[in-house]
Amino acid sequence: MFARDFCCSCSFPWTWEENKRFELYLAKFPDDTPDRWHTMASFMQGRTPLELKLWYEKLLLDVAEIESGRVEPPWPQRESNEEDDVLVEEASPTSSTGAKSEPERKKGVPWTEEEH
Fold it and tell me: Yes or no: is domain 17-66 CATH 1.10.10.60?
């Protein structure tokens, strides 16, 4: 079971938005941040420092399980195929000649002498 699904000490299930905010705060407050979990909890209403710390530990376990190959990642795995390659080519910022296309410039009103 993945940490994103369940946390035995959590008062209520984690939402997708909470997970995203948690990830952002992990990046903003690295391991060496003093009182890391208290600081993060002050930004995550409804979550205690202990909940955040336990959630982090469960996420580390999830990552270890995925990296070891014992557990499949929670997202669908896809093989590259021709359809994907076409989509990448269509999204590419190059023209059919291979040269990068210039972004269209906005036409503005020239400045007056007073504005210079």
Answer: yes
